[in-house]
């Protein structure tokens, strides 16, 4: 990379990440609205939102008019999320009715809707500011399943600031375009493996320690970015694709934790899993593409040297965020 535009690349990256944060990046991914029928005419509602709220955010579920709450909702903290539960009694079926979330446009958030009917059918949807309501279908087609899970994966990676910061670090660590492709490919293969194994039930790890280790992996990458190149090369410099693959395995378990919250439709597991993974890759490519486009524009406009300053700003910013996440996640675990 040319030296002059790297500072602008760093500032552009932090501008994007700051925008994600100010727009309400979710530490645990999108909110979850789950409605589970335990008998015809009666269901249990679970409303899960991140404990860290965006200022002014006030989302609330709006259930079908023929469904009325039964009893007072219970509230509890689970990790870094707030979970409310209550029962509802419905005078008619959920199929064909609308499930909405009020305030979703102002919060710029997304909400996963998961409905489990009494006969075992699982219906999934994603609510966004552009689509704040979900019409409950009798059944979902393969195209509906693929679209829902692709959007879930896309939203999760773009709402996961820690994963984006790690990808940014990989872009800055790469010494060439070929090396960057190798590292990003290794990262993709790594998290695809563990995401699939965990989603299919072959491996099972508690999410809290995994989130702590993800923060450690970002701190490791930040330290590598600040390392003097005159010193003997580290394993990361000698075998970047191998270590990146290992970090991908770790991050894949983090993706799997988000997918476990949503669940997979029993009759379309391979399609849903593939679509979720494709959504993650699409979001990752969009992020890299925006940064690379900014780099190309800056290269044409600037000539002054800003390489070391830009790299230092970015590396120390990545390191500061990783330490913050590490402290938050260790505190939440204890």
Note the main attributes of this structure.
10 helices, 54% helix, 334 residues, 2 domains, 6-stranded mixed β-sheet, alpha+beta
Task: Give a verbal description of the structure.
With 334 residues, the chain is α+β, with helices and mostly antiparallel strands. The protein has two domains: 194 residues, no CATH class; 111 residues, no CATH class. It has ten helices and nine strands. The protein has a six-stranded mixed sheet. A three-stranded antiparallel sheet has the order 3-6-9, with no helix packed on it. Helix 3 crosses helix 9 and helix 6 packs antiparallel against helix 10. The protein is elongated and about 75 Å long.
Give the helices and strands, then pairings.
Blueprint: H1 6-22, E1 31-39, E2 42-50, E3 60-62, E4 67-78, E5 81-90, E6 98-102, H2 104-107, E7 111-116, E8 122-127, E9 133-135, H3 142-159, H4 161-173, H5 177-199, H6 207-226, H7 235-238, H8 240-262, H9 269-301, H10 307-333
Parallel strand pairs: 1-7
Antiparallel strand pairs: 1-2, 2-5, 3-6, 4-5, 6-9, 7-8
Helix pairs in contact: 1-4, 1-9, 1-10, 3-9, 4-6, 4-10, 5-8, 6-8, 6-10
Q: Please, what is the average pLDDT?
A: 79
- Taking pLDDT < 50 over at least 5 consecutive residues as the criterion, the unreliable ranges are 18-28
Structural class: alpha+beta
| Largest β sheet strand count, sense and barrel closure | 6 strands, mixed
Please tally the β strands and state the result: 9
* Share of β-strand residues: 15-25%
Strand-and-helix sequence, N→C? HEEEEEEHEEEHHHHHHHH
Q: Total domains, how many?
A: 2
Ends distance: 43 Å
- Strand arrangement, largest sheet? 4-5-2-1-7-8
Shape: elongated
């Amino acid at each position: 990379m040319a030296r002059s535009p790297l500072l602008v690349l760093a500032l552009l990256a932090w501008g994007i990440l700051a925008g994600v944060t100010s727009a309400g990046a979710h530490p645990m991914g999108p909110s979850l609205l789950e409605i589970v029928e335990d008998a015809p005419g009666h269901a249990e509602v679970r409303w899960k939102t991140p404990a860290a709220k965006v200022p002014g955010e006030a989302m609330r579920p709006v259930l079908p008019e023929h469904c009325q709450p039964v009893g007072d909702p219970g509230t509890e903290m689970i990790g870094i999320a707030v979970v409310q539960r209550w029962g509802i009694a419905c005078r008619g079926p959920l199929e064909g009715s609308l499930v909405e979330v009020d305030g979703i446009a102002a919060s710029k958030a997304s909400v996963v809707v998961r409905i489990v009917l009494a006969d075992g059918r699982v219906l999934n949807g994603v609510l966004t500011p552009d689509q704040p309501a979900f019409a409950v279908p009798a059944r979902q087609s393969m195209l509906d399943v693929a679209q829902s899970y692709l959007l879930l994966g896309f939203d999760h990676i773009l709402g996961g600031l820690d994963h984006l910061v790690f990808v940014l670090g990989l872009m800055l660590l790469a010494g060439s375009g070929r090396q960057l492709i190798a590292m990003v490919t290794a990262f993709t293969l790594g998290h695809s493996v563990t995401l699939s194994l965990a989603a299919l039930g072959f491996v099972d790890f508690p999410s809290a320690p995994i989130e702590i280790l993800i923060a450690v992996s970002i701190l490791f990458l930040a330290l590598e970015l600040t390392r003097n190149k005159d010193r003997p090369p580290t394993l990361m410099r000698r075998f970047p694709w191998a270590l990146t693959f290992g970090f991908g395995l770790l991050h894949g378990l983090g993706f799997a934790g988000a997918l476990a919250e949503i669940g997979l439709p029993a009759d379309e597991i391979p399609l849903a899993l593939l679509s979720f993974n494709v959504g993650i890759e699409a979001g990752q490519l969009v992020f890299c593409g925006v940064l690379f486009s900014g780099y190309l524009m800056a290269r044409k406009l600037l000539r002054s040297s800003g390489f070391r300053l830009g790299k230092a700003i970015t590396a120390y910013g990545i390191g500061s965020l990783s330490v913050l996440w590490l402290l938050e996640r260790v505190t939440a675990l204890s």
